[in-house]
Amino acid sequence: MKLNRRGFIGSGAAVATTLAASTVFANGHGKPRVVVVGGGAGGATAARYIAKDSKGAIDVTLIEPSRVYYTCFYSNLYLGGFKTIDDLGHSYGTIAARGVNVVHDWAVGVDRDAKTVALAGGGFVPYDKLIMSPGIDFIDGAVEGWGLLSQNAMPHAYKGGSQTELLKAQIAEMPQGGTFAMVAPPNPYRCPPGPYERVSMVAHYLKANNPTAKIIVADPKPKFSKQGLFQEGWAKYYSGTIDWIGGDFGGGNVSVDPNAMTVTIDGEVTKVDVCNVIPAMKAGRIAELAGVTEGNFAPVNAADMSTKADADLYVLGDASQQGDMPKSGFSANSQAKVCANAVRGALTDSKVFPAKFSNTCWSLIGTNDGVKVGATYEATDEKISKVDGFVSATGESADLRKATYEESEGWYAGITADMFG
Ligand SMILES: Cc1cc2nc3c(=O)[nH]c(=O)nc-3n(C[C@H](O)[C@H](O)[C@H](O)COP(=O)(O)OP(=O)(O)OC[C@H]3O[C@@H](n4cnc5c(N)ncnc54)[C@H](O)[C@@H]3O)c2cc1C
Questions:
Q1: What is the pLDDT of residue 30?
Q2: Which of 2, 150, 294, 368 could form a disulfide with 402 if both were Cys (CB 3.0 to 4.6 A apart)?
Q3: What is the band of 29 on the pLDDT scale with cuts at 50, 70, 90?
Q4: Measured between alpha carbons, how far is 327 from 290 in angstroms, rounded to an integer?
Q5: How far is the CA of 135 from the centre of ligand 1 (A)?
Q6: Rounded CA gap, 91 and 196, in Å?
Q7: Residue 289, CB half-sphere, CA atoms under 13 Å: how many?
Q8: Largest separation between any pair of C-alpha atoms in the chain
Q9: For ligand 1, atom 27: residue with the closest CA
C-alpha cells in the first residue's frame, strides 16, 4: 500500500475526510483505462492523443482542478502588453467532446498496488496506466525570507493565471522611477529563457510607461540561456535600465523581506517596489506522493516516459527527469505524444513508433524582435539525448527577427490546438 495523502498542499479539508472505499469513475465497461493527472501542456496532449488515436478503444480520464488552463508560455508577452490574459486561457470542453472524461478535481494520492488515484473530492479512479504531468512546485526555503504565504507580496508568476495577473498589476502600480527586482532560479527549472524574456518584457512595458524605473536581477547562475542575444537586446532597447547580478558577483547570495519589501543581495539591502521571486523547483507534489521521484524530479525511461520506479506510471514534462530536453511546453507536448503512442501500443497492440522528440523556445526581446533556440532528440538507454540544435545569432537583421517572432505566433496557435483543440 503506497497511498499517502498527508500534507498535500491545497486540499487540506478534503484530505482530512475518509475517502469512501468505492470507485467513483469506472466508465470503461471492460476497456483498458488510462488516467491522466494534470491537464497542462503534457497531460492535455496525452489525454487528447490517446482518446483520438484509440478511437474509443481506451477509456481516458483527465484529472485537473482548473476549468481554464492559462499558459505560462506567452505570459511574458502579456506582461509586455502584447497579449491579453484571455489570449492565454484554454478550456477543456473540446477535449471532453472528443471523448476524454474530464474530472475537475485534485488528485491527492496514488495507490500503486490497487492502481487507483484518490481525489480530493472523495473516491478513487482506477487505472491500468497512469500518466502524470503535474508541472512544478517550489522547494521550501529555497529563497531565504520567501514562502508560499508571501506569494501575494512577492509573486513568482511561474504558474499561469492569477499570479501572472498579480505581477502585471503590481508593475502597473509601480511609482515613477521605482525598482522592479527579480530573484532568478537555479538550474534545472521550467523554461530556461523564461526569466530573461520576462526581464525584456517588463523593461519594454516600463520604457513606455515608467521610463526612469530600474530592474535588478539577482541570479545564482553565472550564465543563462540565450545570454548573448538577451544582453545585446537589453543594450539596444533598454540601456541603463537592467542590472543583472550573476552568480559570480554574489547574485546567488540573496534573501528577501516581503513585509519591508527589501531584497538583500550579497549583503547589500535594496528597497524595491515589485519583487518577482522565482524559487528553485521540484516536481509537482503528486509525483512525490506517488513515490516516483528521486531527489526533486521523477526519473523516466526515454523510450516511453515510464518511470524508473513503476512501468505503469508515466511522468511527462517539467516533473520528469529525462535527460537533455529543457523543461518547456513544447518538450512536454513532444514527450506526451511519444508516451501516448507507447501507452496505446501497450494497451491495444497498435504500432509503436521509435521515440523522437523536438523542442524550440522562442523569446521576444522587443517589438518584433524574436529569437529562438531549439533541438531534436532521440531516446537512448540512459536518457533523452540531444541529436542536433540551433540558436539565433547576435546581429541578425530586423526582418529575420520579425520572421522569428511571427513563427512563434504560429507555434503558439498550433501547439495550443494540439493540446486543447
Ligand atoms: C514565464 C514562462 C514562460 C514560458 N514560456 C514558454 C515558451 O515560450 N515555450 C514553451 O514551450 N514553454 C514555455 N514555458 C514553460 C511551460 O509553461 C512549461 O514547461 C509547461 O507548462 C510544462 O508542462 P507540464 O505539463 O509539465 O506542466 P503544466 O503545464 O504546468 O501543467 C500541470 C497541470 O497539472 C495540474 N496539477 C498539478 N497537480 C495536480 C494534482 N495533484 N491533481 C490534478 N492536477 C494537478 C495543474 O493544475 C496544471 O494544470 C514558460 C514558462 C514560464 C513560467
A1: 87
A2: 368
A3: low
A4: 21
A5: 5
A6: 28
A7: 22
A8: 66
A9: 135
Mean pLDDT of 275-292: 98
Give the closest residue (by CA) to ligand 1 atom 4. Answer: 73
Nearest to 80 by CA among 210, 228, 205, 193: 205
286 lines ligand 1 (CB under 6 A): yes
Question: Pick from 256, 222, 17: which is nearest to 122 by CA?
Answer: 17
Residue ranges in 160-294 assigned as alpha helix (H)? 162-172, 194-209, 227-237, 285-289
**64 with 43: CB under 8 angstroms?**
yes
- By C-alpha distance, which of 131, 139, 51, 138 is closest to 99? 51
Domains parsed from the chain with CATH numbers: 12-137+282-351 (3.50.50.60), 141-278 (3.50.50.60)
- Find all residues with CB under 8 Å of 33, minimum gap 6, and list them: 26, 58, 59, 61, 126, 127, 128, 129
CA distance 217 to 202: 12
Partners of 111 in beta bridges: 116
161 lines ligand 1 (CB under 6 A): no
Cell of 412: 503558439
Query: pTM of the predicted model, to two decimals?
Result: 0.94
**Residues 340-351 as b or e (16 or more Cβ within 10 Å = b):** bbbbbebbeeee
The model's confidence at residue 98, banded by pLDDT at 50, 70 and 90, is very high
Q: Whose CA is nearest to atom 51 of ligand 1?
A: 72
Q: What's the CA angle centered on 276, arms 275 and 282, to 5 degrees?
A: 140
Number of H helices, E strands in the chain: 11, 24
Q: How many C-beta atoms surround the C-beta of residue 207 within 10 A? A: 14
**Ligand 1 centroid from CA 136, angstroms:** 7
Using CA atoms, how far apart are residues 141 and 150, in angstroms rounded to an integer? 12
Of 51, 54, 88, whose CA–CA distance to 73 is shortest?
88
Residue 153 burial class via C-beta count within 10 angstroms: exposed 0-12, middle 13-18, buried 19 and up: middle
C-alpha cell at 214: 530600474
Q: What spatial distance separates the first Cα and last Cα of the chain, rounded to whole Å?
A: 38
Ligand 1 centroid vs 156 CA: distance in angstroms? Answer: 14
Ramachandran assignment for 362, one of left (phi > 0), alpha (psi -120 to 50 degrees), beta (any other): beta
300-333 confidence digits (pLDDT tens)? 999 999 999 999 999 999 999 999 999 999 999 9
